[in-house]
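Progress note, sequence design subtask.
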Protein backbone atom coordinates (compact mmCIF):
# COMPACT_ATOMS: atom_id res chain seq x y z
CA UNK A 1 0.00 0.00 0.00
CA UNK A 2 1.39 3.34 -1.01
CA UNK A 3 0.84 6.83 -2.23
CA UNK A 4 1.91 7.32 -5.83
CA UNK A 5 2.49 10.46 -7.87
CA UNK A 6 3.94 11.48 -11.18
CA UNK A 7 4.35 14.16 -13.82
CA UNK A 8 4.64 13.71 -17.57
CA UNK A 9 5.72 16.49 -19.91
CA UNK A 10 3.44 16.30 -22.93
CA UNK A 11 4.37 19.61 -24.54
CA UNK A 12 4.88 22.07 -21.70
CA UNK A 13 7.78 24.41 -21.05
CA UNK A 14 8.48 23.02 -17.57
CA UNK A 15 12.04 22.05 -16.72
CA UNK A 16 12.51 18.47 -15.49
CA UNK A 17 13.80 19.84 -12.18
CA UNK A 18 10.52 21.72 -11.68
CA UNK A 19 8.63 18.49 -12.32
CA UNK A 20 10.82 16.72 -9.77
CA UNK A 21 9.98 19.33 -7.16
CA UNK A 22 6.26 19.03 -7.92
CA UNK A 23 6.34 15.25 -7.53
CA UNK A 24 8.42 15.52 -4.35
CA UNK A 25 5.78 17.88 -2.98
CA UNK A 26 2.98 15.41 -3.75
CA UNK A 27 4.87 12.51 -2.18
CA UNK A 28 5.67 14.50 0.95
CA UNK A 29 2.05 15.47 1.48
CA UNK A 30 0.92 11.85 1.20
CA UNK A 31 3.36 10.47 3.77
CA UNK A 32 0.43 9.18 5.82
CA UNK A 33 -0.16 6.69 2.99
CA UNK A 34 3.40 5.39 3.15
CA UNK A 35 5.66 6.29 6.08
CA UNK A 36 8.24 3.50 5.54
CA UNK A 37 10.10 4.54 2.38
CA UNK A 38 10.03 7.27 -0.20
CA UNK A 39 11.51 7.83 -3.61
CA UNK A 40 11.38 9.98 -6.72
CA UNK A 41 12.85 8.93 -10.07
CA UNK A 42 13.52 11.41 -12.86
CA UNK A 43 13.21 9.93 -16.33
CA UNK A 44 13.57 11.47 -19.78
CA UNK A 45 10.21 13.28 -19.97
CA UNK A 46 8.57 12.10 -16.75
CA UNK A 47 9.04 11.98 -13.00
CA UNK A 48 7.60 9.24 -10.77
CA UNK A 49 7.29 9.26 -6.98
CA UNK A 50 6.10 6.96 -4.23
CA UNK A 51 5.77 6.80 -0.45
CA UNK A 52 5.53 3.21 0.75
CA UNK A 53 3.66 1.36 3.47
CA UNK A 54 5.54 -1.96 3.61
CA UNK A 55 3.17 -4.95 3.65
CA UNK A 56 4.59 -7.48 1.15
CA UNK A 57 8.31 -7.78 0.49
CA UNK A 58 9.67 -5.76 3.39
CA UNK A 59 13.19 -5.62 1.94
CA UNK A 60 14.56 -2.44 0.28
CA UNK A 61 14.49 -4.22 -3.08
CA UNK A 62 10.71 -3.71 -3.08
CA UNK A 63 10.92 0.06 -2.67
CA UNK A 64 9.60 2.32 -5.40
CA UNK A 65 9.82 3.72 -8.00
CA UNK A 66 11.05 0.37 -9.31
CA UNK A 67 12.96 0.04 -12.57
CA UNK A 68 13.15 -3.21 -14.45
CA UNK A 69 16.65 -4.58 -15.10
CA UNK A 70 15.35 -6.19 -18.29
CA UNK A 71 13.70 -3.23 -20.02
CA UNK A 72 13.37 0.53 -19.93
CA UNK A 73 10.24 0.37 -17.75
CA UNK A 74 9.71 2.00 -14.34
CA UNK A 75 6.63 1.52 -12.13
CA UNK A 76 4.92 3.18 -9.18
CA UNK A 77 2.19 1.04 -7.72
CA UNK A 78 -0.39 1.25 -4.93
CA UNK A 79 -2.29 -1.81 -3.72
CA UNK A 80 -1.92 -5.56 -3.54
CA UNK A 81 -1.99 -8.29 -6.19
CA UNK A 82 -3.21 -11.18 -4.06
CA UNK A 83 -2.37 -13.87 -6.62
CA UNK A 84 1.18 -12.55 -6.98
CA UNK A 85 2.70 -15.88 -5.87
CA UNK A 86 1.06 -17.80 -8.70
CA UNK A 87 1.82 -15.06 -11.23
CA UNK A 88 5.47 -14.92 -10.17
CA UNK A 89 5.80 -18.68 -10.73
CA UNK A 90 4.13 -18.35 -14.12
CA UNK A 91 6.42 -15.49 -15.14
CA UNK A 92 9.50 -17.37 -13.94
CA UNK A 93 8.52 -20.25 -16.21
CA UNK A 94 8.41 -17.69 -19.03
CA UNK A 95 12.00 -16.63 -18.29
CA UNK A 96 11.58 -13.63 -15.98
CA UNK A 97 13.97 -13.15 -13.04
CA UNK A 98 12.99 -11.59 -9.73
CA UNK A 99 15.12 -9.66 -7.25
CA UNK A 100 12.42 -9.09 -4.60
CA UNK A 101 9.72 -11.07 -2.81
CA UNK A 102 6.87 -8.56 -3.15
CA UNK A 103 4.18 -7.98 -5.73
CA UNK A 104 5.41 -4.71 -7.25
CA UNK A 105 7.98 -6.53 -9.34
CA UNK A 106 5.28 -8.97 -10.45
CA UNK A 107 3.28 -6.05 -11.87
CA UNK A 108 6.35 -4.80 -13.72
CA UNK A 109 7.22 -8.17 -15.27
CA UNK A 110 3.57 -8.89 -16.09
CA UNK A 111 3.50 -5.68 -18.13
CA UNK A 112 6.74 -6.67 -19.87
CA UNK A 113 5.26 -10.06 -20.76
CA UNK A 114 1.67 -9.17 -21.67
CA UNK A 115 1.67 -5.41 -22.23
CA UNK A 116 -1.73 -3.78 -21.83
CA UNK A 117 -3.27 -7.25 -21.55
CA UNK A 118 -1.66 -7.81 -18.15
CA UNK A 119 -4.67 -6.42 -16.25
CA UNK A 120 -7.03 -9.44 -16.42
CA UNK A 121 -4.26 -11.55 -14.86
CA UNK A 122 -4.41 -9.54 -11.62
CA UNK A 123 -6.63 -10.53 -8.70
CA UNK A 124 -6.46 -7.65 -6.29
CA UNK A 125 -6.77 -3.95 -5.63
CA UNK A 126 -4.43 -1.65 -7.49
CA UNK A 127 -3.65 1.65 -9.12
CA UNK A 128 -0.32 2.00 -10.90
CA UNK A 129 1.59 3.85 -13.58
CA UNK A 130 4.39 2.50 -15.76
CA UNK A 131 6.71 4.67 -17.82
CA UNK A 132 7.70 2.55 -20.80
CA UNK A 133 10.80 4.15 -22.25
CA UNK A 134 11.04 1.62 -25.08
CA UNK A 135 7.59 2.53 -26.42
CA UNK A 136 7.68 6.16 -25.24
CA UNK A 137 4.43 5.93 -23.30
CA UNK A 138 2.87 6.08 -19.86
CA UNK A 139 0.49 3.25 -19.01
CA UNK A 140 -1.77 3.64 -15.98
CA UNK A 141 -4.62 1.51 -14.65
CA UNK A 142 -7.10 0.98 -11.83
CA UNK A 143 -8.65 -2.18 -10.39
CA UNK A 144 -12.07 -3.54 -11.30
CA UNK A 145 -14.14 -1.99 -8.51
CA UNK A 146 -12.14 1.15 -7.73
CA UNK A 147 -10.68 0.02 -4.41
CA UNK A 148 -7.48 1.97 -4.97
CA UNK A 149 -7.59 5.59 -6.16
CA UNK A 150 -6.01 7.30 -9.16
CA UNK A 151 -6.52 11.05 -9.76
CA UNK A 152 -5.04 13.14 -12.53
CA UNK A 153 -4.98 16.58 -14.09
CA UNK A 154 -3.77 18.03 -17.37
CA UNK A 155 -2.63 21.63 -17.29
CA UNK A 156 -0.80 23.45 -20.06
CA UNK A 157 0.80 20.40 -21.63
CA UNK A 158 1.64 18.86 -18.28
CA UNK A 159 0.04 15.65 -17.00
CA UNK A 160 0.04 15.11 -13.22
CA UNK A 161 -1.31 12.16 -11.24
CA UNK A 162 -1.54 11.17 -7.58
CA UNK A 163 -3.42 8.94 -5.15
CA UNK A 164 -5.32 11.91 -3.69
CA UNK A 165 -6.62 15.15 -5.24
CA UNK A 166 -5.20 17.29 -2.45
CA UNK A 167 -1.70 16.08 -3.35
CA UNK A 168 -2.19 17.52 -6.84
CA UNK A 169 -3.29 20.82 -5.31
CA UNK A 170 -0.09 21.14 -3.27
CA UNK A 171 1.96 21.61 -6.43
CA UNK A 172 0.38 24.98 -7.18
CA UNK A 173 0.04 23.81 -10.79
CA UNK A 174 -3.61 22.71 -10.53
CA UNK A 175 -6.39 25.27 -9.89
CA UNK A 176 -8.65 24.69 -6.87
CA UNK A 177 -11.94 25.58 -8.61
CA UNK A 178 -14.88 23.43 -7.47
CA UNK A 179 -16.85 21.38 -9.99
CA UNK A 180 -20.38 22.71 -9.49
CA UNK A 181 -22.03 19.82 -11.34
CA UNK A 182 -20.47 17.35 -8.89
CA UNK A 183 -21.40 19.54 -5.93
CA UNK A 184 -25.02 19.74 -7.08
CA UNK A 185 -25.25 15.99 -7.68
CA UNK A 186 -23.90 15.42 -4.18
CA UNK A 187 -26.40 17.82 -2.61
CA UNK A 188 -29.30 16.34 -4.58
CA UNK A 189 -28.53 12.62 -4.47
CA UNK A 190 -25.78 12.27 -1.88
CA UNK A 191 -23.46 10.60 -4.39
CA UNK A 192 -19.91 11.05 -5.60
CA UNK A 193 -17.47 8.97 -7.68
CA UNK A 194 -20.09 8.29 -10.34
CA UNK A 195 -17.77 8.81 -13.30
CA UNK A 196 -14.46 10.55 -13.97
CA UNK A 197 -15.55 13.78 -12.27
CA UNK A 198 -14.34 14.86 -8.83
CA UNK A 199 -15.27 17.86 -6.68
CA UNK A 200 -12.51 19.78 -8.49
CA UNK A 201 -13.17 21.01 -12.00
CA UNK A 202 -9.51 20.56 -13.03
CA UNK A 203 -9.04 17.09 -11.49
CA UNK A 204 -10.39 13.82 -12.85
CA UNK A 205 -10.30 10.30 -11.51
CA UNK A 206 -9.64 7.19 -13.54
CA UNK A 207 -12.93 5.23 -13.31
CA UNK A 208 -12.87 1.70 -11.87
CA UNK A 209 -11.92 -0.98 -14.37
CA UNK A 210 -10.25 1.53 -16.71
CA UNK A 211 -6.74 2.10 -18.03
CA UNK A 212 -5.08 4.99 -19.77
CA UNK A 213 -2.20 5.48 -22.18
CA UNK A 214 -0.27 8.66 -22.86
CA UNK A 215 1.53 8.33 -26.16
CA UNK A 216 2.70 10.86 -28.75
CA UNK A 217 1.43 13.69 -26.56
CA UNK A 218 -2.14 12.36 -26.43
CA UNK A 219 -4.18 10.72 -23.66
CA UNK A 220 -6.47 7.75 -24.28
CA UNK A 221 -8.68 6.27 -21.51
CA UNK A 222 -10.60 3.01 -22.03
CA UNK A 223 -12.46 0.40 -20.02
CA UNK A 224 -10.77 -2.96 -19.53
CA UNK A 225 -13.43 -4.57 -17.29
CA UNK A 226 -17.23 -4.76 -17.37
CA UNK A 227 -19.00 -6.44 -14.46
CA UNK A 228 -22.18 -6.88 -16.48
CA UNK A 229 -20.33 -8.79 -19.21
CA UNK A 230 -18.18 -10.76 -16.77
CA UNK A 231 -21.18 -11.87 -14.70
CA UNK A 232 -23.06 -12.94 -17.82
CA UNK A 233 -20.15 -15.10 -18.98
CA UNK A 234 -19.76 -17.23 -15.85
CA UNK A 235 -20.44 -20.95 -16.14
CA UNK A 236 -24.00 -21.64 -14.93
CA UNK A 237 -24.45 -24.15 -12.14
CA UNK A 238 -27.73 -25.94 -11.59
CA UNK A 239 -26.49 -27.69 -8.47
CA UNK A 240 -23.93 -26.99 -5.84
CA UNK A 241 -24.15 -23.22 -6.21
CA UNK A 242 -24.04 -22.59 -2.46
CA UNK A 243 -21.03 -24.88 -2.04
CA UNK A 244 -19.28 -23.15 -4.94
CA UNK A 245 -19.97 -19.75 -3.39
CA UNK A 246 -18.41 -20.87 -0.12
CA UNK A 247 -15.39 -22.33 -1.93
CA UNK A 248 -14.76 -19.03 -3.72
CA UNK A 249 -15.23 -17.04 -0.52
CA UNK A 250 -12.76 -19.24 1.39
CA UNK A 251 -10.25 -18.82 -1.44
CA UNK A 252 -10.71 -15.05 -1.38
CA UNK A 253 -10.16 -14.88 2.38
CA UNK A 254 -7.04 -17.05 2.14
CA UNK A 255 -5.55 -14.80 -0.55
CA UNK A 256 -6.20 -11.68 1.51
CA UNK A 257 -4.31 -13.10 4.47
CA UNK A 258 -1.10 -13.02 2.42
CA UNK A 259 1.05 -10.52 4.24
CA UNK A 260 4.51 -10.08 5.74
CA UNK A 261 3.03 -8.14 8.68
CA UNK A 262 0.26 -9.13 11.13
CA UNK A 263 -3.32 -9.03 9.85
CA UNK A 264 -6.34 -7.88 11.85
CA UNK A 265 -10.06 -8.36 11.31
CA UNK A 266 -12.66 -5.69 11.91
CA UNK A 267 -15.41 -7.63 13.69
CA UNK A 268 -18.64 -5.66 13.96
CA UNK A 269 -20.99 -8.48 14.91
CA UNK A 270 -22.76 -8.55 11.55
CA UNK A 271 -22.84 -11.52 9.20
CA UNK A 272 -20.19 -10.15 6.81
CA UNK A 273 -17.39 -9.54 9.30
CA UNK A 274 -18.41 -12.58 11.36
CA UNK A 275 -18.01 -14.75 8.26
CA UNK A 276 -14.55 -13.34 7.56
CA UNK A 277 -13.53 -13.88 11.18
CA UNK A 278 -14.89 -17.42 11.35
CA UNK A 279 -13.47 -18.64 8.03
CA UNK A 280 -10.29 -16.63 8.50
CA UNK A 281 -9.58 -18.23 11.87
CA UNK A 282 -9.18 -21.55 10.10
CA UNK A 283 -6.49 -20.33 7.71
CA UNK A 284 -2.91 -21.69 8.15
CA UNK A 285 -1.33 -18.58 9.65
CA UNK A 286 -0.85 -16.93 13.00
CA UNK A 287 -4.18 -16.34 14.70
CA UNK A 288 -5.35 -12.90 13.57
CA UNK A 289 -6.44 -10.25 16.02
CA UNK A 290 -10.06 -9.17 15.86
CA UNK A 291 -11.15 -5.64 16.70
CA UNK A 292 -14.53 -4.36 17.76
CA UNK A 293 -14.98 -0.63 18.10
CA UNK A 294 -17.99 0.68 20.00
CA UNK A 295 -19.48 4.15 19.84
CA UNK A 296 -20.94 5.94 22.87
CA UNK A 297 -24.72 6.30 22.64
CA UNK A 298 -25.10 3.80 19.79
CA UNK A 299 -28.51 2.15 19.46
CA UNK A 300 -26.96 -1.31 19.20
CA UNK A 301 -24.13 -2.75 21.28
CA UNK A 302 -22.04 -4.92 18.94
CA UNK A 303 -19.88 -6.40 21.67
CA UNK A 304 -22.05 -9.42 22.63
CA UNK A 305 -22.24 -10.57 19.01
CA UNK A 306 -18.54 -10.02 18.39
CA UNK A 307 -17.57 -11.77 21.62
CA UNK A 308 -19.70 -14.79 20.75
CA UNK A 309 -18.14 -15.07 17.28
CA UNK A 310 -14.61 -14.61 18.63
CA UNK A 311 -15.09 -17.21 21.36
CA UNK A 312 -16.55 -19.69 18.88
CA UNK A 313 -13.67 -19.11 16.42
CA UNK A 314 -10.85 -18.98 18.96
CA UNK A 315 -9.90 -15.42 18.03
CA UNK A 316 -8.28 -12.87 20.29
CA UNK A 317 -10.74 -9.97 20.48
CA UNK A 318 -9.79 -6.42 21.36
CA UNK A 319 -12.72 -4.17 22.18
CA UNK A 320 -12.15 -0.44 22.14
CA UNK A 321 -14.46 2.50 22.69
CA UNK A 322 -14.16 5.30 20.16
CA UNK A 323 -14.27 8.85 21.51
CA UNK A 324 -17.56 10.71 21.39
CA UNK A 325 -18.46 12.49 18.18
CA UNK A 326 -17.84 16.21 18.10
CA UNK A 327 -17.07 19.02 15.68
CA UNK A 328 -13.33 18.62 16.07
CA UNK A 329 -13.44 15.04 14.82
CA UNK A 330 -15.78 16.00 11.98
CA UNK A 331 -13.42 18.74 10.84
CA UNK A 332 -10.37 16.48 11.08
CA UNK A 333 -12.13 13.79 9.06
CA UNK A 334 -12.97 16.35 6.37
CA UNK A 335 -9.29 17.32 6.26
CA UNK A 336 -8.27 13.72 5.60
CA UNK A 337 -11.09 13.04 3.14
CA UNK A 338 -10.35 16.21 1.18
CA UNK A 339 -13.86 16.15 -0.32
CA UNK A 340 -17.44 16.23 1.04
CA UNK A 341 -18.91 12.96 2.29
CA UNK A 342 -22.36 11.56 2.70
CA UNK A 343 -23.00 11.22 6.45
CA UNK A 344 -21.52 11.35 9.96
CA UNK A 345 -21.02 7.58 9.71
CA UNK A 346 -17.84 8.34 7.74
CA UNK A 347 -16.54 10.24 10.77
CA UNK A 348 -17.33 7.15 12.84
CA UNK A 349 -15.29 5.05 10.41
CA UNK A 350 -12.44 7.58 10.69
CA UNK A 351 -12.56 7.31 14.50
CA UNK A 352 -12.55 3.52 14.20
CA UNK A 353 -9.38 3.59 12.05
CA UNK A 354 -7.80 6.01 14.50
CA UNK A 355 -8.60 3.61 17.32
CA UNK A 356 -7.22 0.54 15.50
CA UNK A 357 -4.07 2.48 14.57
CA UNK A 358 -3.25 2.80 18.26
CA UNK A 359 -2.96 -1.01 18.39
CA UNK A 360 -0.22 -1.07 15.75
CA UNK A 361 -2.15 -3.10 13.15
CA UNK A 362 -1.32 -2.24 9.52
CA UNK A 363 -3.59 -4.65 7.63
CA UNK A 364 -7.29 -4.91 8.39
CA UNK A 365 -9.86 -7.17 6.74
CA UNK A 366 -13.34 -5.65 6.47
CA UNK A 367 -16.73 -6.68 5.11
CA UNK A 368 -16.95 -3.70 2.75
CA UNK A 369 -18.74 -4.42 -0.52
CA UNK A 370 -20.95 -7.30 0.57
CA UNK A 371 -24.12 -5.22 0.97
CA UNK A 372 -23.93 -3.88 -2.57
CA UNK A 373 -24.15 -7.16 -4.48
CA UNK A 374 -25.49 -9.59 -1.87
CA UNK A 375 -28.57 -7.43 -1.34
CA UNK A 376 -27.78 -6.26 2.18
CA UNK A 377 -29.85 -3.08 2.26
CA UNK A 378 -33.51 -3.25 3.30
CA UNK A 379 -34.80 -1.63 0.12
CA UNK A 380 -33.46 -4.53 -1.95
CA UNK A 381 -36.47 -6.47 -0.65
CA UNK A 382 -38.68 -3.99 -2.51
CA UNK A 383 -36.85 -4.78 -5.75
CA UNK A 384 -37.33 -8.51 -5.08
CA UNK A 385 -41.08 -8.00 -4.59
CA UNK A 386 -41.27 -5.80 -7.70
CA UNK A 387 -39.49 -8.57 -9.64
CA UNK A 388 -42.18 -11.07 -8.64
CA UNK A 389 -45.04 -8.69 -9.47
CA UNK A 390 -43.51 -7.77 -12.84
CA UNK A 391 -43.35 -11.48 -13.69
CA UNK A 392 -47.02 -11.81 -12.66
CA UNK A 393 -46.16 -13.97 -9.67
CA UNK A 394 -48.73 -12.07 -7.63
CA UNK A 395 -49.28 -14.72 -4.99
CA UNK A 396 -45.57 -14.97 -4.16
CA UNK A 397 -45.14 -11.20 -4.24
CA UNK A 398 -48.06 -10.48 -1.93
CA UNK A 399 -47.09 -13.29 0.45
CA UNK A 400 -43.62 -11.79 0.64
CA UNK A 401 -45.02 -8.28 1.11
CA UNK A 402 -47.44 -9.12 3.92
CA UNK A 403 -45.12 -11.41 5.86
CA UNK A 404 -45.54 -10.62 9.57
CA UNK A 405 -41.84 -9.76 9.84
CA UNK A 406 -42.50 -6.81 7.53
CA UNK A 407 -45.29 -5.38 9.69
CA UNK A 408 -43.19 -2.56 11.22
CA UNK A 409 -42.01 -1.48 7.76
CA UNK A 410 -45.07 -2.33 5.66
CA UNK A 411 -45.93 1.25 4.71
CA UNK A 412 -42.32 1.92 3.71
CA UNK A 413 -42.08 -1.24 1.61
CA UNK A 414 -45.38 -0.54 -0.16
CA UNK A 415 -44.18 2.98 -0.97
CA UNK A 416 -40.84 1.68 -2.27
CA UNK A 417 -42.46 -0.98 -4.47
CA UNK A 418 -44.96 1.54 -5.83
CA UNK A 419 -42.12 3.95 -6.59
CA UNK A 420 -40.44 1.37 -8.82
CA UNK A 421 -43.52 1.23 -11.08
CA UNK A 422 -43.76 5.02 -11.48
CA UNK A 423 -42.68 6.69 -14.73
CA UNK A 424 -39.22 8.26 -14.56
CA UNK A 425 -40.65 11.78 -14.58
CA UNK A 426 -42.62 11.14 -11.40
CA UNK A 427 -39.65 9.44 -9.76
CA UNK A 428 -37.56 12.58 -10.29
CA UNK A 429 -40.04 14.62 -8.21
CA UNK A 430 -38.84 12.75 -5.12
CA UNK A 431 -35.39 14.30 -5.51
CA UNK A 432 -36.65 17.90 -5.40
CA UNK A 433 -35.23 19.88 -2.48
CA UNK A 434 -36.59 23.33 -1.54
CA UNK A 435 -33.19 24.58 -0.39
CA UNK A 436 -31.33 23.52 -3.56
CA UNK A 437 -31.20 25.81 -6.56
CA UNK A 438 -30.65 24.02 -9.84
CA UNK A 439 -28.12 25.51 -12.21
CA UNK A 440 -29.60 26.65 -15.50
CA UNK A 441 -27.10 24.57 -17.43
CA UNK A 442 -27.73 21.44 -15.33
CA UNK A 443 -27.80 18.21 -17.27
CA UNK A 444 -28.84 14.86 -15.90
CA UNK A 445 -25.84 12.89 -14.77
CA UNK A 446 -25.02 9.22 -15.20
CA UNK A 447 -26.22 8.44 -11.68
CA UNK A 448 -29.73 9.79 -12.26
CA UNK A 449 -30.05 8.17 -15.68
CA UNK A 450 -28.96 4.77 -14.37
CA UNK A 451 -31.10 5.03 -11.24
CA UNK A 452 -34.40 5.56 -13.06
CA UNK A 453 -33.63 2.52 -15.21
CA UNK A 454 -33.35 0.25 -12.14
CA UNK A 455 -36.56 -1.81 -12.15
CA UNK A 456 -35.30 -5.27 -11.17
CA UNK A 457 -33.19 -6.72 -8.38
CA UNK A 458 -30.31 -7.62 -10.69
CA UNK A 459 -30.24 -4.12 -12.19
CA UNK A 460 -30.27 -2.63 -8.68
CA UNK A 461 -27.35 -4.81 -7.58
CA UNK A 462 -25.30 -3.95 -10.67
CA UNK A 463 -26.16 -0.28 -10.14
CA UNK A 464 -24.92 -0.33 -6.55
CA UNK A 465 -21.62 -1.99 -7.44
CA UNK A 466 -21.01 0.44 -10.29
CA UNK A 467 -22.41 3.69 -8.90
CA UNK A 468 -22.38 3.48 -5.08
CA UNK A 469 -19.56 1.13 -4.11
CA UNK A 470 -16.65 3.27 -5.46
CA UNK A 471 -17.73 6.12 -3.20
CA UNK A 472 -17.73 3.90 -0.10
CA UNK A 473 -14.35 2.49 -1.07
CA UNK A 474 -12.92 6.00 -1.42
CA UNK A 475 -14.16 6.94 2.04
CA UNK A 476 -12.58 3.84 3.53
CA UNK A 477 -9.32 4.26 1.63
CA UNK A 478 -8.78 7.83 2.82
CA UNK A 479 -9.89 7.08 6.38
CA UNK A 480 -7.66 4.02 6.72
CA UNK A 481 -4.65 5.49 4.94
CA UNK A 482 -4.87 8.63 7.08
CA UNK A 483 -3.63 6.30 9.83
CA UNK A 484 -1.37 4.13 7.63
CA UNK A 485 -3.73 1.14 7.63
CA UNK A 486 -4.36 -1.04 4.60
CA UNK A 487 -7.89 -2.43 4.40
CA UNK A 488 -8.68 -5.55 2.41
CA UNK A 489 -12.06 -6.77 1.23
CA UNK A 490 -12.62 -10.54 0.89
CA UNK A 491 -16.13 -9.99 -0.48
CA UNK A 492 -14.73 -8.03 -3.44
CA UNK A 493 -12.85 -10.84 -5.15
CA UNK A 494 -14.07 -10.36 -8.71
CA UNK A 495 -14.76 -14.06 -9.27
CA UNK A 496 -17.04 -14.05 -6.22
CA UNK A 497 -18.97 -10.95 -7.28
CA UNK A 498 -19.42 -12.23 -10.83
CA UNK A 499 -20.60 -15.61 -9.56
CA UNK A 500 -23.25 -14.11 -7.27
CA UNK A 501 -24.62 -11.72 -9.89
CA UNK A 502 -25.12 -14.65 -12.25
CA UNK A 503 -27.19 -16.46 -9.59
CA UNK A 504 -31.00 -16.65 -9.47
CA UNK A 505 -32.39 -13.52 -7.75
CA UNK A 506 -34.15 -15.59 -5.09
CA UNK A 507 -30.82 -16.96 -3.96
CA UNK A 508 -29.61 -13.43 -3.28
CA UNK A 509 -32.71 -11.88 -1.72
CA UNK A 510 -35.23 -14.52 -0.69
CA UNK A 511 -38.50 -14.35 1.21
CA UNK A 512 -37.62 -11.67 3.76
CA UNK A 513 -34.02 -12.90 3.83
CA UNK A 514 -31.29 -10.67 2.46
CA UNK A 515 -27.85 -12.08 1.63
CA UNK A 516 -29.55 -15.43 1.30
CA UNK A 517 -26.69 -17.27 -0.41
CA UNK A 518 -24.24 -16.10 2.25
CA UNK A 519 -26.50 -17.18 5.12
CA UNK A 520 -26.99 -20.60 3.57
CA UNK A 521 -23.24 -21.00 2.98
CA UNK A 522 -22.26 -20.30 6.61
CA UNK A 523 -25.34 -21.43 8.53
CA UNK A 524 -23.37 -24.21 10.24
CA UNK A 525 -20.53 -21.89 11.21
CA UNK A 526 -22.07 -18.76 12.71
CA UNK A 527 -24.09 -18.39 15.91
CA UNK A 528 -27.86 -18.25 15.30
CA UNK A 529 -27.93 -14.84 16.98
CA UNK A 530 -25.77 -13.44 14.18
CA UNK A 531 -27.49 -15.29 11.35
CA UNK A 532 -30.92 -14.01 12.41
CA UNK A 533 -29.93 -10.41 13.10
CA UNK A 534 -32.17 -7.75 11.56
CA UNK A 535 -30.91 -4.77 13.59
CA UNK A 536 -27.48 -4.37 11.96
CA UNK A 537 -27.07 -0.71 11.05
CA UNK A 538 -23.43 -0.28 9.98
CA UNK A 539 -21.53 2.54 11.67
CA UNK A 540 -24.33 3.68 13.96
CA UNK A 541 -23.48 7.20 15.06
CA UNK A 542 -25.69 9.04 17.55
CA UNK A 543 -26.80 12.23 15.82
CA UNK A 544 -27.63 14.15 18.98
CA UNK A 545 -24.51 16.24 18.43
CA UNK A 546 -26.10 17.54 15.21
CA UNK A 547 -28.71 19.16 17.48
CA UNK A 548 -26.12 20.71 19.80
CA UNK A 549 -25.54 24.43 20.12
CA UNK A 550 -21.95 23.96 18.95
CA UNK A 551 -23.07 22.37 15.67
CA UNK A 552 -25.81 24.96 15.20
CA UNK A 553 -23.30 27.78 15.61
CA UNK A 554 -20.83 26.11 13.25
CA UNK A 555 -23.51 25.55 10.60
CA UNK A 556 -24.84 29.10 10.84
CA UNK A 557 -21.30 30.43 10.64
CA UNK A 558 -20.62 28.48 7.46
CA UNK A 559 -23.90 29.69 5.96
CA UNK A 560 -23.03 33.30 6.73
CA UNK A 561 -19.68 32.91 4.94
CA UNK A 562 -20.99 30.99 1.93
CA UNK A 563 -19.02 31.87 -1.23
CA UNK A 564 -20.83 33.21 -4.27
CA UNK A 565 -20.33 30.02 -6.31
CA UNK A 566 -22.12 27.91 -3.69
CA UNK A 567 -24.74 30.57 -2.95
CA UNK A 568 -26.00 29.96 -6.49
CA UNK A 569 -26.73 26.37 -5.42
CA UNK A 570 -27.78 26.59 -1.76
CA UNK A 571 -30.56 28.82 -0.47
CA UNK A 572 -29.08 29.35 3.00
CA UNK A 573 -32.29 30.84 4.39
CA UNK A 574 -34.12 27.61 3.66
CA UNK A 575 -31.12 25.45 4.52
CA UNK A 576 -31.02 26.93 8.03
CA UNK A 577 -34.56 25.63 8.60
CA UNK A 578 -33.12 22.11 8.47
CA UNK A 579 -31.66 22.75 11.93
CA UNK A 580 -35.17 22.76 13.41
CA UNK A 581 -36.38 19.59 11.74
CA UNK A 582 -35.98 16.13 13.23
CA UNK A 583 -36.81 13.84 10.31
CA UNK A 584 -34.19 11.48 8.93
CA UNK A 585 -34.36 13.21 5.55
CA UNK A 586 -33.81 16.64 7.13
CA UNK A 587 -30.78 15.41 9.09
CA UNK A 588 -29.39 13.85 5.93
CA UNK A 589 -29.81 17.09 3.96
CA UNK A 590 -28.39 19.12 6.84
CA UNK A 591 -25.22 17.05 6.81
CA UNK A 592 -24.77 17.38 3.04
CA UNK A 593 -24.94 21.16 3.19
CA UNK A 594 -22.60 21.26 6.19
CA UNK A 595 -20.10 18.94 4.50
CA UNK A 596 -19.99 20.97 1.28
CA UNK A 597 -19.62 24.31 3.07
CA UNK A 598 -16.93 22.99 5.42
CA UNK A 599 -15.01 21.39 2.54
CA UNK A 600 -15.05 24.59 0.52
CA UNK A 601 -13.88 26.66 3.47
CA UNK A 602 -11.02 24.24 4.20
CA UNK A 603 -10.14 24.27 0.51
CA UNK A 604 -9.64 28.02 0.56
CA UNK A 605 -6.95 27.84 3.24
CA UNK A 606 -3.27 27.53 2.27
CA UNK A 607 -2.38 23.87 2.38
CA UNK A 608 0.40 24.38 4.94
CA UNK A 609 -2.18 25.60 7.46
CA UNK A 610 -4.21 22.42 7.13
CA UNK A 611 -1.68 19.61 7.42
CA UNK A 612 1.94 19.84 8.40
CA UNK A 613 4.21 16.99 7.36
CA UNK A 614 5.84 15.49 10.49
CA UNK A 615 9.48 16.52 10.49
CA UNK A 616 10.47 13.25 12.15
CA UNK A 617 9.36 11.44 9.02
CA UNK A 618 10.17 13.72 6.11
CA UNK A 619 11.66 16.92 7.45
CA UNK A 620 11.73 20.03 5.35
CA UNK A 621 10.44 19.54 1.81
CA UNK A 622 13.55 20.99 0.23
CA UNK A 623 15.66 18.57 2.25
CA UNK A 624 13.45 15.71 1.12
CA UNK A 625 13.75 16.76 -2.51
CA UNK A 626 17.51 16.99 -2.15
CA UNK A 627 17.94 13.58 -0.55
CA UNK A 628 15.49 11.77 -2.82
CA UNK A 629 17.09 9.78 -5.55
CA UNK A 630 16.68 11.57 -8.85
CA UNK A 631 18.00 8.87 -11.10
CA UNK A 632 18.47 10.16 -14.64
CA UNK A 633 17.60 7.55 -17.20
CA UNK A 634 18.96 7.54 -20.74
CA UNK A 635 16.91 9.50 -23.27
CA UNK A 636 14.55 7.28 -25.24
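Output:
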Amino acid sequence: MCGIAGAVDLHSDKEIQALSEAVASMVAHMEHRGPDAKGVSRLATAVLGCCRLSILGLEPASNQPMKSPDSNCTVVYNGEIFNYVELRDQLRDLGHRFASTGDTEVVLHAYEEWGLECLPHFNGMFAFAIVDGDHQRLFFARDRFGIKPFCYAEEGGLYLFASEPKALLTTGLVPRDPDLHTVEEFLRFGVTDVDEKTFFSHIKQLPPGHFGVIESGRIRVSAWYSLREAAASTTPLERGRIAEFRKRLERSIALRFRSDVPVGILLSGGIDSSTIATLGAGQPHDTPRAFTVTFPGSRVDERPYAEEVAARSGLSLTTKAAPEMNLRWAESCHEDQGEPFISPSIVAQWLMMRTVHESGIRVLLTGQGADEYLGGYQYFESYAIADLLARRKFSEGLTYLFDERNAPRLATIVAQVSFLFLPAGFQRLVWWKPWLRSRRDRTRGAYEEDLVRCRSLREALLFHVKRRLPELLRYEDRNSMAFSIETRHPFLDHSLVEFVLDSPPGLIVGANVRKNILRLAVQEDLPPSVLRRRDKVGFDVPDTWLQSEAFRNAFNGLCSRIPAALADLVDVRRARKLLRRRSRRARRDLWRVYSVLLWHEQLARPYAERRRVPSATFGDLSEFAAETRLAKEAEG
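Confidence is low (pLDDT under 50) at residues 608-636. Work on this subtask will continue into the next period as scheduled.
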